[in-house]
Amino acid sequence: MSGLERTADVVVVGGGAHGCALAYNLCRLGGPGLKVSLFERAYLAGGATGRSAAGVRHQFGTDINCRLAVWNVRLLEGLKEELDYPYDLEWSQGGYLLLADTPGQLAQFSRNVALQRSLGIPSVILTPEQTAEVAPSLSLEGVLGASFCPRDGHVNPFHLTWAYARAARRLGARLHPYCEVQSVLVEGGRVRGVRTAAGTVQAPVVVVAAGAHGADLAREVGVEVPLYAERHQILVTEPVEHFLDPLVLCFGDGTYFKQTPHGSLLVGIGDPMEQKGYGQESTWRFLEAAARLIVRHLPALAGVRVVRQWAGLYDITPDSQAVVGPTPVEGLWLDLGWSGHGLQFCPSIGVILSQLILGLTPLVDVSPFRLARFETGELVPEPACI
Amino acid sequence: MSARKTMSDRETIVCRCEDVTLADIRRVIAEGAGTADDIKRLTRAGMGLCQGRTCRHLILQELAAATGTPIEKLTVPTFRPPTRPVLLGVIAGASGTAAAGSGGGESSGSRPVQADTEGKGEGEGGRG
After folding, report:
1. A357-373 burial code (b ≥16 CB/10 A, e <16)
2. What pTM value is reported for the model?
């Protein structure tokens, strides 16, 4: 490896799906003259990206998330070709099944589906009988109905990130894994660059896409982002024959699960008692709770072995929505606070944030995600998340 | 290990659980995978039933050779529980059919999902 470059036009902090998608799109839209550098403290996808279940859905309850979701899926459908990636992104379009077990949840699903359909998204409300057709192996005890969109799916988060990273490198971006950004450099209200573990890089634009840790970097230069880190855990089983098409989200108990193309099942739960802060230890409490819940939803899994469990961090804002856009510090941009549903937005946000930084017209207006909303009270609460 | 001298890279299985060959490992290293974590996530080597017990050291050897970094200075992927594969039914405390014991590979009856692993990784503590 040669020495660290002394300058860049744009520095991206964070080598997850968002950072890598952003680096690629900046190079693509900015042309060969634009010098883009990316820093990641661990390996690419080593943070929240690689720890996520990597679901991709249209089924949100706010206008902005639905509009972005349409682009996420449209871009993902052609992404392997666009990025000329030699491996499989494991993009599986088996739909997303959201289960309701109270009338209140079902009513919320109906409102969400009405919004989704008004934006051209082919989601539907299913009866328990119709739900059984989509996922025959599922126990429907207590299920009142479901919301389903056949064009939702899931992806392999590592390959997704590597696909963007490879394409970004091919277009000239300089990616630095295992090189932590220690601080953003600001002078006279303007960004001057970053100080990294390997030295300083001067740059007029810095984009922080580093989850909860990114909020700490911003806070140090006077930009307060109201979010907190919370541990979430997932387990993975040995591979079994394919039997489950959709990714399933149970709104009653917070369980979600998918079967990967490899055959293994990923199982996570939204646990209101989960630990806040940066700890990423695995716990027996999770393993036991997840095993109990998944065996209830998919009784056949009682005979399947768990091989690993892990943990990652959500970066949760007051309205469970992202912060995307500029800050009061000139040249400092944010892409964080995704509150647990962020990975799937990297295709659209990678394009849109690049467009905004380069002064181009964005695909979708993301001003509802502006940082100032927390001061003005214009929150956009997302009801469809666990 | 003497077999390495006579078998081709394509025939040499490094990760037995996930059928990853030496050629697979060398290809992703050549493409820029610089750590065992990268290799694992691009090839699945070490993601199977034995969680890298067998292949971890072999992969580190390959990385050390390719990068010229001493093996003890290479980053090793995180160890996570459970130490050995355990039936979900056992952890869930389910009674009866499935709860024969941890790691039992037998699948009884007419469950639609069948473990297709042929018990690979069972009881293996090999150090490579």
Report:
1. bbeeeebbebebbbbeb
2. 0.92
Q: Which of B97-110 are b and which e, b meaning 16 or more Cβ less than 10 Å from the residue's Cβ? A: ebbeeebbbebeee
Q: Which residue ranges of chain B lie beneath pLDDT 70?
A: 1-6, 94-128
CA A95 to chain centre: 17
In whole angstroms, give the CA distance from residue A160 to residue A151. Answer: 18
Taking only Cα atoms into account, the Rg of chain A, rounded to an integer number of angstroms, comes to: 20
Check if the beta carbon of residue A266 is closer than 8 Å to that of residue A260: yes
Instruction: Return the closest-CA partner of residue A110 out of A126, A92, A90, A133.
Output: A126
Residues in chain B within 8 Å Cβ distance of A167 = none
The partner residue sitting opposite B85, judged by closest CB among A169, A262, A306, is A306
Q: Tens digit of pLDDT for each residue in A138-156?
A: 999 999 999 999 999 999 9
Which of A278, A283, A236, A258 is closest to A135 using CA atoms? A258
For residues A217-231, b (16+ Cβ closer than 10 Å) or e, as one string?
bbeebebebebebbb
Question: What is the C-alpha radius of gyration for chain B, rounded to an integer number of angstroms?
Answer: 17
* Residue A205 contacts residue A335 (beta carbons within 8 Å): no
Size of interface A-B (CB pairs under 8 A): 121
Q: Is B74 an 8 Å CB contact of chain A?
A: no
Do residues A340 and A232 lie in contact, with contact meaning Cβ atoms separated by under 8 Å? yes
Rounded to whole angstroms, the Cα distance separating A289 from A122 reads: 34
According to the model, what pLDDT value does residue A385 have? Answer: 85
Model confidence band, residue A263 (pLDDT cutoffs 50, 70, 90): very high
Instruction: Measure CB to CB from residue B49 to each of A166, A238, A310 and give the nearest one.
Output: A238
Q: What is the DSSP letter of A46?
A: T
Asked if A159 reaches chain B (Cβ–Cβ under 8 Å), the answer is yes
Provide the total of helices (H) and of strands (E) in chain B, helices listed first: 4, 3
